[in-house]
Amino acid sequence: MPTIREELDRRELLYSLLMPVMSLYVPGLDKGKGLYFLFVKSESKTPGGLTARPVLTSYYKSDHFRSRPFDAYNIYTSPTAAILCADSFQSMYSQMLCGLYARLDVLRVGAVFASGLLRAIRFLQLHWESLARDIETGTLTDRVADPSVRDSLAGVLSPDPGLARFIVDECSKDNWAGIITRVWPNTKYLDVIVTGAMAQYIPTLEYYSGGIPMACTMYASSECYFGLNLQPMCKPSEVSYTIMPNMAYFEFLPVDSSSSEPTTLVELASVEVGKEYELVITTYAGLYRYRVGDVLRVTGFHNAAPSFRFVRRKNVLLSIESDKTDESELQRAVECASELMRPHGASVAEYTSQADTSSIPGHYVVYWELLVRDPSAGPGRDVLERCCLEMEEAMNAVYRQSRVADGSIGPLEIRVVRSGTFEELMDYAISRGASINQYKVPRCVNFTPIIELLDSRVESAHFSPACPNWTPHT
C-alpha cells in the first residue's frame, strides 16, 4: 500500500485520542503502565528500491514512536529496543520479562490482535521456568543475544527471589483460568481487537483474564486509519467505530444482495442507520476510490460523523491473525495438493475448511473427502502430509510469513473424512431449510453442529511436516 511521511502525522493524531477517550471510562490510567506485546516484522525492497514493510512496523520504526515525548498515560513496560527486535523469541521473552518485573504497575494488558495476546500467554506457559530463573538471579538467558535488547534490560534486571517464587507458584498450577489477573492483579481491561475474525478468540480471552472488559479502541487497516470506538468499554458484540473524516475521503457502496445492478456511491454524511455498506476510500497517499473489502453496518451518528459496526470481510474464508485467505486461493491450494495424489489413484471429491483456534497458535483445518480408485493402494500418511505442506506453499506471503517468521499460525491440518460425509452435510443443510436445487458445499464452516458432524466422520488427520518456503522477498 502506498504511503507518505505525512500519513504518520494523521495516524499519530488518532493514537493521541485513544487515551483521552479511555480515561472517560477508566480513571487513573496515568498512575501505572501498559503491558503491550508489540512486534516488528521483516522488511523488503521493491524493484524500484522502496522499502516495503507492514504498516505497524513502519510506525514502530518511525520517529513518531521511537522519539515520542513522555506521556504518563502511555508508559509501556516494554523497552523500545525489545519491540524493535526482529527476532520474535527474543522480543517476546524480553517483553514478558519486563512485564513480570512490573506486574503490580500494570493497569492494562494488550496486543494489536487478540491472537497476539493469546500467543503471549502461551509463551508464558512454555517459558515460565526460564523467566523465573532469570528473575531469581537477576540475569538474562543467553537466548536473548541482541546487544540493544540486553542493554535496554540492564536497568530492569535485579535479583527478586520473591517474585520468582510467585511466578513458579502461579504458573506451575494446572488451572490457568484467570492467569492474567492473577499475575497482573491491577489490570483494569484488555486492549485488543476482538471484532471481525478476532471474535473467535473472545471465549479463550475471557478464560485467561477472568472476564475483565475487552476494549476495542480503534478501527484501522494497512490502507488507512479510519476511526475510534467512543464507547470502548462496551461488550465486544456492541462495538461501533466512529469515522474520523480527516483521515481520508470516505465513500460507501451499498450492499444489496438482491440486486446485481451497479449502485451509486454514498458520501459519508448520507449513509442511513441500519444499512450495510462496503467501505471505499481515497487516501492522501494515492489510493483512489479503493475498495477496502470491509462490510459495515451504520449504527448511529456522533454529531454528523457516522458510527459503524464491522460486519465481515468480503470474500475472506480463513483468518487466524493478519492472514486473509479467500475462496479462490483455498481452491488453488487444494488443486496443487491434489496433484500429489494422482500417482496413487486418488483425488479430492469434496472439501471444506475451518480456522481452528482451540489451540495456540491457531491453524487451518481442511476436511477432505477422497475418491480412491483402489483403497488398498491409496495415498499413505507421508503423501497426505506432503499434501499439507503443498497447500501451505500455495498460500500467500502473509500466511507463510506468519508460519515461518512469526509462529503465529500453526501447521496446516488435513482431516480425511469417510465417504458420504458431504452428502450428510447436504442433508443436514436441507433439513434446516436450504434448497436442494441451490445448495453448494460451503468452503468454510464455523457452525458448531456442522464442525461436530465433520469431526465425527474423520478417518485420519495429517499435519504439515515442515514450514513452507518464505523469505522477506516472496
Automatic annotation (TrEMBL):
Key words, A-Z: Ligase
GO molecular function: acid-amino acid ligase activity
GO terms for cellular component: cytoplasm
Residues annotated as domain GH3 C-terminal: 329-447
InterPro entries per record: GH3, GH3_C, GH3_M
Matching Pfam families: GH3, GH3_C, GH3_M
Residue stretches making up the GH3 middle domain: 241-313
Superkingdom in the source lineage: Eukaryota
Sequence similarity: Belongs to the IAA-amido conjugating enzyme family.
Protein name per UniProt: Indole-3-acetic acid-amido synthetase GH3.8
Organism: Iris pallida (Sweet iris)
